[in-house]
Design goal:
The complex is a heterodimer of chains A (132) and B (142). Chain A is mainly β and 132 residues long. In chain A, the strands form two sheets. In chain A, strands 1-7-5-4 form a four-stranded mixed β-sheet, with no helix packed on it. Chain A has a four-stranded antiparallel β-sheet with strand order 2-3-9-8, with no helix packed on it. The termini of chain A are far apart. Chain B has 142 residues and is mainly beta. In chain B, the strands form two sheets. In chain B, strands 1-2-8-7 form a four-stranded antiparallel β-sheet, with no helix packed on it. A three-stranded antiparallel β-sheet of chain B has the order 3-4-6, with no helix packed on it. Classes of the chains: A mainly beta (132), B mainly beta (142). Chains A and B meet through strand 2, strand 3 and strand 6 of A and helix 1, strand 1, strand 2 and strand 5 of B.
Amino acid sequence: MANDMNPTVDKTEAEAPETTAGGRIYRPLTDIAETEDGVTLMLEMPGVSAENVDVTLEKRVLTIRGKVEATSSDKLQLAYAEYGEGDYERSFTLSDDFDPEKIGASVSNGVLTLTLPRVAEAQPKKIAVTAS
Amino acid sequence: MLYPTYASRSDPFAMMRSMMRGADRFSSSRMAQPVFPAVNIWQGEDAVAITAELPGVDPADIDISVKDNMLTITGERKAPQAPEGARWHRNERGYGKFSRTIQLPYPASNDNIEARMTNGVLRIVVGRPEEDKPKKIEIRAA
């Protein structure tokens, strides 16, 4: 890459063991919001279609993987690159009150949205303290 | 142009790492804001293609225009919507208006440009006008 160009927003590589095929793995930028009903995660995974997303929840660790469909062309050759293409991977440790069966996932314009509803019995219960 | 910080606020080490990575940039004369979107440029005999990653941007919010050999991509990344009373754990994604101008190797007209958006990746193909293509000159036998 030329040094005289403007710096662009870097994609961070994930701290994951390297791939056998030599492809890169990026850490998707994530927004996480929590409400009383649960947690919503929004992960940026450009180039990943819905069928190539893999979400697992095992022992409180939520792992998100996305396989990129690399841009390639028979007639055109890459002449200048500011961003790299590669798969995405990131994991989060959750508090254990989420039901893996109820995780909702959808992909729209390269953003994966995950909704994790809180398990009913784990919803905060207020304990009244009585003065004696 | 607004570019909110990308470094994760909740992970000070990620911020430090990104600062270390950027350290060599500060030594150069440029202290420009990062450019969004980053683009890759593809070249061929009959066309040039520009690809850019625009996750979370609705294709309807992107405007592509061309004037002579300058191609401009403008648009807006909308701030994420959260329900009332939501508490943000992380806010790493950026949002706001963006604009980027790219110089093409030849002047192009609107009718030989094709843009497509798939899974948050924008791909613009600019066809090379006939008059710009190299002409083969035949050598006739005398």
